[in-house]
UniProtKB/TrEMBL annotation:
Coiled coil: none annotated. InterPro entries: Aminotrans_3 (IPR005814), Aminotrans_3_PPA_site (IPR049704), PyrdxlP-dep_Trfase (IPR015424), PyrdxlP-dep_Trfase_major (IPR015421), PyrdxlP-dep_Trfase_small (IPR015422). Keywords: Aminotransferase, Pyridoxal phosphate, Transferase. GO terms for molecular function: transaminase activity. This is Aspartate aminotransferase family protein. Residues 1-22 are annotated as: Disordered. Its cofactor is pyridoxal 5'-phosphate. The keyword Transferase applies. It comes from Zobellella aerophila. Belongs to the class-III pyridoxal-phosphate-dependent aminotransferase family. The keyword Cell membrane does not apply.
Length: 454
């Protein structure tokens, strides 16, 4: 068993490691928590704490930790062919098999995949593919892609531009041109005075307004997550997606469903689009594709786009060294096989998600909680200072609650004053009970820290 010199590791981390999405100065004052191992739905830190990982890493460890089958898939492939590319008239079995498998799982009109190394690269690919598509259609002026405020599509320049995260846009100069953003369907945050279904239609109508304002001859596509993840598990009202689909169809613009979180079982189907019954032209994927064991992503490409690219596009000058990386593809394929063999999607749909929904909703009675919502194995709690007026705390309470969660033995993430969870899909009912107890204990501790009576 590997032993770690924790304080030395922490010191070296603060000296040399620039962490993603982190205030490094603030982190270095305390030092980071060092995670050393994991099994099932639990992670373990170097100080000996066992912590229930209700975020499945970063929304990705769908199959759970510690699966020897994935270790074996990686090791076997690394011995046979650790790396080769798919550029110059070559391919290899893992990439081919994974492409076939993915297009079998995808809706009928999707029969191709372009591989990448991450969700961000998938969305960079989306931008290039969408613009190329309209160029081939003889409409090169259709370059504008419409995304949403508070959407998340990754952290490369294209990903950050497509996303609507204001703090990301504010750092480091102009984003990619010809990207526009519309309102998000965030009922609790922005539409509470309305009926949710009316609000869903209103939020969708901002797409139509934006198309009219820009002129449809300029608009290439609309991109959105089926359920916003990083934005705070924002579950659109049922009226929203059918109206978005209608608007995209009516104006002939491409629909892109960013499936990086919702894909691979999170909502109890292979893809979130199937849950919402929409028909995207492009579906960026990553995260749960390999359950995070190795980095891999891709774009599932519908026939409308793929046929034109293939038949008339000639060479597409785009690709990554690691597009379809054989070791990553072998792990992704094995991961999908395990999800199938162990009927994990059925487990989510029939057992885990209904049970989680019921138990999660109980947290709505907590004095700090203004709303408890969930869909599939995604959940959110809105922290409020006043349960009647639903007024918010000062900023920072979400971060406090997140830190308290860690101390209590559960990973929840805070998005502003919204606490979110996205546990491994293999979570059992008993483990859901533990998740709820730990979440409640963390809320209690947060309330005590704030001097609020329970
Ligand atoms: C995480 C995420 C991405 C970015 O994926 P990376 O692998 O971090 O580049 C893109 N879209 C969505 C919806 C995500 O949640």
């Amino acid at each position: 068993m590997d032993t770690h010199n924790t304080s030395e590791l922490r010191r070296e981390d603060s000296r040399h490691h620039l962490h993603p999405f982190t205030d490094t100065k603030e982190l270095n004052e305390k030092g980071c928590r060092i995670i050393t191992k994991a099994d099932g739905i639990y992670i373990y830190d170097a100080d000996g704490h066992k912590i229930l990982d209700a975020m499945a890493g970063l929304w990705c460890v769908n199959i759970g930790y510690g699966r020897q089958e994935l270790v074996d898939a990686a090791a076997g492939q690394m011995q046979e062919l650790p790396y080769y590319n798919n550029f110059f008239k070559t391919a290899h079995p893992p990439a081919i098999k994974l492409a076939k498998k993915l297009t079998e799982l995808a809706p009928d009109h999707i029969n191709h995949v372009f591989f990448t190394g991450s969700g961000s690269e998938s969305n960079d690919t989306v931008v290039r593919m969408v613009r190329r598509y309209w160029q081939l259609q003889g409409k090169p002026e259709k370059t504008v892609i419409i995304g949403r405020q508070n959407g998340y599509h990754g952290s490369t320049v294209a990903g950050a531009s497509l996303g609507g995260m204001a703090p990301m846009h504010q750092q480091g100069g102009p984003m990619l041109p010809d990207i526009e953003h519309i309102a998000q369907p965030y009922w609790f945050g922005e539409g509470r005075e309305m009926d949710p279904q009316e609000f869903g239609l209103l939020a969708a109508s901002s797409l139509e307004k934006k198309i009219q304002q820009l002129g449809v001859e300029r608009v290439a596509a609309f991109i959105a997550e089926p359920v916003q993840g990083a934005g705070g598990v924002i579950i659109p009202p049922a009226s929203y997606w059918p109206e978005i689909q209608r608007i995209c169809d009516q104006h002939g613009i491409l629909l892109i469903a960013d499936e990086v979180i919702c894909g691979f079982g999170r909502l109890g189907r292979w893809f979130g689009s199937q849950h919402f019954d929409i028909k995207p032209d492009l579906m960026p994927i990553a995260k749960g594709l390999s359950s995070g064991y190795l980095p891999i992503g891709g774009v599932l490409v519908g026939d409308r786009v793929a046929d034109l690219l293939i038949d008339e596009g000639g060479e597409f000058y785009h690709g990554f060294t690691y597009s379809g990386h054989p070791s990553c593809a072998a792990v992704a394929l094995r991961n999908i096989e395990l999800l199938e063999q162990e009927r994990v999607l059925e487990h989510v749909r029939d057992i885990a998600a209904p049970y989680f929904a019921r138990r999660w909703a109980e947290l709505a009675s907590h004095p700090l909680v203004g709303e408890a919502r969930s869909l599939g194995l995604l959940g959110a709690l809105e922290l409020v200072a006043d349960k009647v007026t639903l007024s918010r705390f000062e900023p920072g309470i979400g971060g406090l609650c997140r830190d308290i969660c860690f101390e209590t033995g559960i990973v929840m993430r805070s998005v502003g004053e919204t606490m979110v969870v996205s546990p491994p899909l293999v979570i059992t009912e008993e483990e859901i009970d533990q998740l709820i107890s730990l979440a409640r204990a963390s809320l209690d501790a947060t309330a005590r820290r704030l001097g609020i009576a329970l």
